[in-house]
Structures are given as structure tokens and as C-alpha cells.
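Hi U.,

Before I forget, here's the chain from the pilot set. I'm dumping it here mostly so it's searchable later in email.
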Amino acid sequence: MANIAILSFYSGIVDRGVETFAYEISKRLSKKHRITIFQAGSRIQNPDIRTYQIKSFAKIPHATGNLLSKIYLDMQSFKILFFTVKTFSKLKSGKYDVIVPLNGGWQIVLIRIFAVITKSKILVSGHAGIGADDAWNIFFHPDVFIALTHAEEKWAKRLTNEVKIKTIANGVDLSRFHPKVKPKKIKLSKPIAICTSALVPYKRIELTIKAVSKCKNLSLLLIGEGQEQGYLDTLGKRLLGSKYLRLVVPYQEMPRYYKVADVFTLASKSEAFGISYTEAMACNLPVVTTNDHSRAEIIGDAGILTDPQNTEMYAKDLQIALKTNYRNTPYNQALKFSWNKIALLYSNEIDEITAKPKQ
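Structure:
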């Protein structure tokens, strides 16, 4: 049994992919290992999971994309820095075998220094995806870097041959997300496209609104909040009128909202993985999303890869997905990503990096 600390700054504040990962993987690894989530938020998703709040004046994050954020000199990066420093006394007294830093930036720098002193192992899960943030994580030589797709693994291996790199996808809770969930009643006419996302620029929700407006009789259910919500609500109501609805929904209610819809779509510029894809497919929804290697790997035959910047093509692909009988293809694709399977793979990696060397 390993003693594992997961550092997840935004847990207890938002329920995005990273925070869902921290909760779902902890719930399953705790059957064999001792897990503690260190978080800035006060909300506890499950009282059975050991959680320790590090108060850090954290708020819902806003993606700025400015120069300061790219070099980790923005306010959010400094908050994560101070949050991480404040965990040190607990990490030291807890004698953790493995530390899982989920927030990158200054956090991986500090944990690398801390691990040298305490001999703890570092496991990094590549939730930032292909690009500078996970390149930064790899630069500080974790004991294992977990790529979320094979495309990310190939990219990571081009950066270094000195770090152990393995591919383990994100997962989905198939006991909660499945085709037999009872749909929620909402005031939107069918058919319905659903998009679940943080409302930040790189998600490109405006492209989805424009494409849906080109589809005859298609409604859009947008679930999420963020810095662009005012702009997107204005655009949605102008282009779609009563066929547009945005909601903020508790995570535990999400399966019922997926089941309202006929197709899932997300036009984001990039995704390390995108847990919402597996959740939608588990509810047997076909997916229409951006065409790249990572999403081709996740979606398989359960949908259509498109160019969201081409509004006409995007709209046409949404209509094709609606007319296609996918039978149980989306659900069968989601079966590959069961959190139970994913947790076993993580447990095996933890066993490997904590195994005592032969004398």
C-alpha cells in the first residue's frame, strides 16, 4: 500500500476534467492505497475520501492566455505557488510515498525540490495536453508522466528519453453515465445538441452556436459557466432564440441532461482528453468535434470529426450525426474508458515506481 497525496488546487470549487479525475481516481485507488486530496476549495465531493483544505482565496478560474499566464507570473499561478508551499508541512508529516501535482506551473517546480529532500516519487498526469504546460511538467523529470492519449505519448517521447512515459486515458463512471438514465425535462424542442464546457475562449463555443443556427430545427443546450457566458448568451439568443438554453448543473445531475440530447458537440481548439466525450458516449450520444489525432483516438467510430471553423461543414456534420443510426456504437466506445479499468492501470504504475530496488 502506498501513501499518496494528490494536489488539486481547484477541487472543491469547480468540477472540470482535472477535478473529476482527482475525485474518481481517489475513490478507486483508496481501496488499495491511502489517498489524500489537498485542495483550495471547501466543498467535499465524497466524505469517504480523505480531503484536506488549504485555504488560498481561490475562485473560479478564468483563462486569460496573456503573456504573464504563459510564464506563470499571473495571479492564479502565484496562488497555486502559495497553495503548494502551504502543503509542505502536511506533506512532510504525512510521509507520502507518491505526490501527484495536478496544477503544473510553479507547483511541479516546488514538488520536484520537495521530492528530492523527502525521496517521494512524482506522478504527473498530462491534463494540459500537447503543448508548453506539459512540456514544462516533463522538464522537471517526474518518476512517471502519464499521457492521456497515444498522440500525447508520441509527442512526449520526442521531448525526452529520460522520463518514463505511459499512456492511460481518462475515464467515465459507467454506473452513473449509461443509456438507461432517465432524461431531465427541459424547455427545448427536439432534436437537441448538447455542449458541456467551461465558457472560456479556447473552447470556441461561439462556433457551435453559429453552426447550430445553420441547422434546421436543431436546439442547443449549453451547460457551463465562465468568463464568456454573457457574450455567449447574447449570441445564442440572437441566433437561436427559444432554441438556445444555458444552464449551470450540479455534476451529479449531468447524466440526466446528456440523455435529453440527440448529439454531443464541442468545438474546442485543443483538448488533452475531454472527459465530457466519454460521459456523452456512455449515455450513447454520437459526438461531433474537432478533427485531431487525440480526439480521433477517443471518439473512434462513435461520431464525426469536423472543422468547426468551417461553419457550413460543422453544421452539415451535426445534421449527418443526427440522421445516422449509431446503434450502441457510442456506448461501446465508452466501455473502453471505465474508471475501474483506468484506476487499475494507475495502481500498477504506482506499484512500479514505489517498488524497492532489488538488493
